[in-house]
Every structure is written in C-alpha cells, then in structure tokens.
Amino acid sequence: MSDNACKTNLGTHILVFPFPAQGHILPLLDLTHQLALRGLIITILVTPKNLSFVKPLLARHPSCIKTLVLPFPTAIQSFSSAPSLPPGIENLKDLPSSYIPAFLHALAKLNEPLLQWFESQIRYSSSPPVAILSDLWTQDLAVRLNIVRVAFFPMSAHNLSVVNYFLSNLPTREDCKDPNHLFTAYGVPNSPVFPIYQIYPSHHLYADASPLWKIFQHNNSLNKASWGIVLNSFSELEEPFLNHLRENYGNHGRVWGVGPLLPPIDHHRKDSSAESRNRGRPSSTCIEQVMSWLDSCAENQQSVLYVCFGSQIVLNRKQIEALSVGLEQSGVKFIWGVKEISSSLTDHEDIEKSVLPTGFEDRVAGQGLVIKGWAPQVAILSHQAVNTFLTHCGWNSVLEGLVAGVQLLLWPMINDHFMTAKLLETDLGLAVKICEGADTVPNSTELARVIAESVPQGDQEGKSRPQMIRAMEMGKMGLEAVKGGGRSFKNLDELVLELKKFNVKRTIYSL
Ligand SMILES: *[C@@H]1O[C@H](CO)[C@@H](O)[C@H](O)[C@H]1NC(C)=O
Ligand SMILES: *[C@@H]1O[C@H](CO)[C@@H](O)[C@H](O)[C@H]1NC(C)=O
Ligand SMILES: *[C@@H]1O[C@H](CO)[C@@H](O)[C@H](O)[C@H]1NC(C)=O
Ligand SMILES: *[C@@H]1O[C@H](CO)[C@@H](O)[C@H](O)[C@H]1NC(C)=O
Description:
Layout: E1 13-17, H1 22-37, E2 41-46, H2 51-60, E3 65-69, H3 100-108, H4 111-124, E4 131-134, H5 139-145, E5 148-153, H6 157-168, H7 173-177, E6 182-184, E7 193-195, H8 196-199, H9 211-224, E8 228-231, H10 235-248, E9 255-257, H11 274-277, H12 287-297, E10 304-308, H13 317-330, E11 333-338, H14 350-353, H15 360-363, E12 368-372, H16 377-382, E13 386-391, H17 395-404, E14 407-410, H18 417-427, E15 432-433, H19 444-454, H20 466-481, H21 487-500
Parallel strand pairs: 1-2, 1-4, 2-3, 4-5, 5-8, 8-9, 10-11, 10-13, 11-12, 13-14, 14-15
Antiparallel strand pairs: 6-7
Helix pairs in contact: 6-10, 13-19, 17-20
The chain binds 2-acetamido-2-deoxy-beta-D-glucopyranose (4 copies).
C-alpha cells in the first residue's frame, strides 16, 4: 500500500489517543488506518505495554504514522469507595469493572505530559497537530490548546442516543430503587424502554453525589462539546439514530458513521496476515491450530458455532456449567473462547469463575475447541465452516459477525448489550436472543435444543431463518458502505476534508 501521501511532512497532523481497553483500541486503530490512507499525518499516543497493538499499523504507514509513548501514570489517590489500581495494568481487559474509576483517574494524569509534548510540537515541528481524535478525556486539553477534538464512539448510535437521554434526564433515586420501574428514552427513535439495570449496571453507585455518576455526566458533556463525532456504525444499520444524534448531540450536525471499521486487510482466510491474527494475545491456542481445526470441519460446510462473550465478560461457575452441558448435548461443533483473568489479580474471586468443568475439554475433543484467552475472532468468523455466532452483543462483535455473514444468537450481559440486542432482534429482526443477563443461568436442555436447531449438522440442510437472511443482507450492506462510493467511505472522505481545513497556518494555538 502506498504511503506517499505523507512524505512531504507538511500535511495535516492529528493526535490519536485510543482508550486502552480492547473494545476501544482496535476500532480506533482501524479508523486511524483509514485516515492515514487519506493522507493525514498521525501521532498515536500509547503507553509502553500497549505499543505492540500499534506496531502493525506503524509498519503499514511508516511515514504517516508515528507514536508518542508516555509512561502509564501511577495512580496514587483514588475514590475511597473504589479499589485502587494494581501496578502494571495499562489495559482495562485485565481488570474487573470495579476498577474503572481508578483506571480513569490514572489516565487523566496523562494530560500534563501530553501538554508538554504539544508545547514542543508547536515550538519545533513544521506541522504540529491541529486536532485530537480520541474516545476519552481529551476535550479539556483540546480547549486548552485551542484545537479541535473529534470524539470517537466505538459503540452504537443507538447506545449513545439513549445514554445521552438518560444523562440529561437523570432518573430519580426513588425510581432507581424499584427494579420493576421502566424508564423511557423519550425523543430517541422508537422511544426505547429499559429497566434501570440495563441502563446503569451499577445504579446502586449512582447515589446523587457518586463520583462515577459525575464521571459519566462530565464525559458526556465533554463529548458533546467536541467539534465532531465519529461512530463505528453505518446508515443502513442505524440511520434513525445517526440522524437523531445529528439533531440532538453537539448542535453542529458533524456526526459521521464510518463503520463497520475493519482490520486493514481482506479478511478471508487465505489473506489473513499476522496483523489481523495477532490482535489481542495472549491465547492458549495458536491461530494455525484453530484454522486447521476449522478446515477439518469444513467438509460439512457451515456447521460450526462460535461462542465468545468478549474481552470483559466473565461467566460464573453455574453459567459455565450450563453452557458446557448445553454445548455438549447439542452435538453441534463449536469453538468457545473463554476469557482468562490476568494472573496479576490471582487473589481475586473472579479467577475461581473462569474454570471449565473437569474433563470437559477431553469429553468434547472432536466436537469442540476451547480457546482460553484471546480468540482470533475475525478469522474464525470469516472461516467458511462457521455458521453461527453466540455473542454477548458487544458492538464490535456484532459488527464483525454481520460482516462475516453468520447467524447471530444473542446473550446480552451488561451495559449497552441489552440495547443492542433489542435493536438487532426487535427493531431490525436479524438475530435471535437465547438468554439475557449477566447472572442468568440458562437451562442447558433448552440451550442444547436451540443450538441444535440453529446450527445444521452433518447432511442436514440448515433451516434458513428469516433473521439469518436479513443478517446476511445487513452484513453485505455494511461491506458496501465502507467501499468506494459507500456512505461510510464518503463520510470518512468528508471528515478528512474538514480536518484538512484546519491547517497549521490557520490554527492559533494557545498554551
Ligand atoms: C496492553 O497492556 C496490558 C497491561 O495492562 C497488557 O496486559 C496487554 O498485553 C497489552 N496489550 C498488548 C497488545 O501489548
Ligand atoms: C466516555 O465517552 C467515551 C466516548 O468519547 C466512551 O467511549 C466511554 O465509554 C465513556 N466513558 C465513561 C466512563 O463514560
Ligand atoms: C454504552 O456503551 C458503552 C460502551 O460499551 C458502555 O460502557 C455503556 O455502559 C453503555 N451505556 C449504557 C447506558 O448502557
Ligand atoms: C429445562 O428445560 C427442560 C425442557 O424444556 C425441562 O424439562 C426442565 O424441567 C428444565 N429444567 C429446569 C431446571 O428448569
């Protein structure tokens, strides 16, 4: 790929700061790739341990993309109610969600060294950055420097619309106490309705003066104040919500759907390079092993179920048991990506949770493959043997599933998963929900039945559910959207064009 666009070093330069959680970092880097293709000069801010995420992109765009590596700030003081950050953690995937406040607190301390870096850029560089693209925190900094900020949302436009509604119209404490109370997001298309736990997973923390509460509100107001908004979504999937944001978020209409953001390669098996394969790591199983296992299933095309609940969700023991029994009884071939908890948190009770029943792996040898740790999801999903994806409805997983043209079975767990499940199942009719809730233990007999019905085995013809057909159509539209001429492709062009108007000469920095 040509990297010539940036050779002059006089182009428009931006700083990209990916929030170091897996679900955030990868789509933002995929977006960065698209921006580099369009000739922006880009500096990516990373902390040392996550530098490896960026390496493939650096190799791909040696003259457009540089890194700024700042040490991860040590968090001394944190909120009294929340645990403080264990040393050596630079990525949310290593942490249970109770650590989020401490993590955010530590991150905010990057502001000072970042400001110093800007100072030296403005002084000594022929093209200091004219914009910051980030998913967190940097709006203050952009205001201080008098440059623009582009906020990136790795979630759905649906989620952002609903979040924004409830942050602007705080539910009362009284209503939150009632588990049966339903909250309506008025004005959001279809006026979606949710019980409190689906909107705010830790609503008991949201007593009036809770620090987390304030973080969310503050974050939202900063994002609203940004110059532009970029979402990993596309018109065909979320037009009403994208339009809603254009009218209700930020008052400037600069809301661009640029998804589905894909890894910078054609992700068919033959082409899948080390780049898309090793995006997470570490993992118990190497990609070659996974691919050859899938190859061995491919005689009966499209016979494999892929089960994965993302990089944050940890199933409890009962859920693991129910799922393993369900999978085994279904007789369906499967790959199951099981999350492993970082060994730096060994004394945490979560470690207890992620253990498979004794003998399970041996019993299902031949039927299933268990991957502990990171699973090469994009490569698995796009393998021809894979027919169905049981997903927790994380936004990235959903997009990856759609693009790969597989059937989606849903088990929404927390946060925006419920909204996404509703969007996919009820509004768009392209997926089937089979379980719901982070603590729910499914009936394994039922689970086995649904799975066996969904995934065709042996010579059996797969029943083509209308949902599956619609999902495949949506996936195709997604791929069209990011090709030349597609809406997302055009939105990216427009974003870059707008950013190029902020050239160094016109930007008056203030320090
Ligand atoms: C990112 O940093 C964390 C440390 O918290 C580390 O566990 C993880 O492996 C890093 N990711 C990569 C790809 O280097
Ligand atoms: C803050 O906003 C960003 C989008 O800019 C979002 O990705 C993130 O989840 C939000 N975090 C919190 C703590 O609200
Ligand atoms: C929206 O999505 C983000 C990112 O997944 C999540 O953290 C947040 O909880 C969601 N918001 C709501 C209100 O569910
Ligand atoms: C699970 O489902 C099966 C079949 O529908 C039913 O016979 C059984 O009683 C259920 N088990 C439990 C514990 O509910």
